[in-house]
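ok so heres the complex, two chains, lmk if somethin looks off
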Amino acid sequence: MVDGIHDMGGMDGFGPIPIEYDEPVFHAEWEGRVYAMNTAIGAWGKWNIDAGRYGIEQMEPAHYLNSNYYQRWLHRTENMMVEHGMLTRDELEGDTAPSGPRNQALTAEQIFERQRNSKSARVAEDVAPKFKAGDCVLVRNIHPKGHTRVPRYVRGRQGVIDRDHGVFIFPDTNALFQGKKPQHIYSVRFSAQDLWGPDAPPQDKLYLDMWDDYLDAV
Amino acid sequence: MSTEHDHSHLSDTDLRVRALESLLTEKGLVDPAALDEIVDKYENKVGPRNGAQVVARAWVDPDFKKWLLEDGTAAIDSLGYTGTQGADMVVLENTSTVHNVTVCTLCSCYPWSVLGLPPAWYKSFPYRARLVKEPRAVLQEFGVELADSVEVRVWDSTAELRYLVLPERPAGTEGMTEYQLVDIVTRNSMIGTEKVAMPAGDA
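and the predicted structre for the whole thing:
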């Protein structure tokens, strides 16, 4: 699913930005309930944030495009709960009455506490960086079938390490429950012209956070 | 987007969400009172005023500003505003020659602990698709006109670092207190899609 519809950077045809002013946090009550259910269910710790993102990326493209943000979250939360044994598909669709032992729901304080304890993806491990600020790097042209955080528009492009952010969980493996594979993340600077061609303003830049495993030395 | 189809589509979603909440409650997987508190937190407690306080402090305190730009996480944590989707923070300073603006092309990553939940436009397909490729055109739609001499820097949040833009302090605000400055800092200015303006009518 890596080359999925979610990887939107640089696509044309979506029209103007739908700017609103003084808009509500949630545009309908159900949006807030989806947000809160996702948070409360996420706090059970059955999956991680990378697996959750991967859950959305696996939506069929037309479904993705026809859903708003919280509809995509709803789809993800439902599917992940079924996948991880918290619900059956039949229970979800109302085809059978709920069964199995009743759980003890988490209180808001328990949920917030669990969030505080897992808020950072930083890993306290001494992993050597492959690059330092100023190094020229080439983004690997990779198309893994699972989850990745390297957008199509930078693959195969050359950039410069701007700064080293330290050691973090690697999402490509973490999303598939294959381990944290801790490694450095860098801000990598690209010139707009290197990404978008000679019509882009020569002075403009883009910065993306890239893990060691996405980069080769030039 | 105001067709009957959309209306019925959202109503279907509304019904589905209600059914899901009933089911999860019955199975003891969620507590509706806890859901109420989570909604209340993001509707009423965690929002852009957190970020505005960070910005106002940086505008009046040069030592804090230096710390904020060098170690955004520690400086923001000193005010109590790190947290979920804002644990590891990077602050980007806008100046007369550099204009930073943030996006998440792959999903909608956003610094919740300093800005609250993202506005719908930030999560929209046009913003996610276009900002990286034509930032000046997107900024024009927000009313931001940038001279060719200004370098635009677009930050695509692909990792768990979360970005906060430190907007330029507008000229004419020298006499304002930190407390007054908090009120003029807009959410969009901390994303990079607005400049902070002097409050209308103030000398």
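quick notes: Confidence is low (pLDDT under 50) at residues 1-5 of chain B. thats all i got rn
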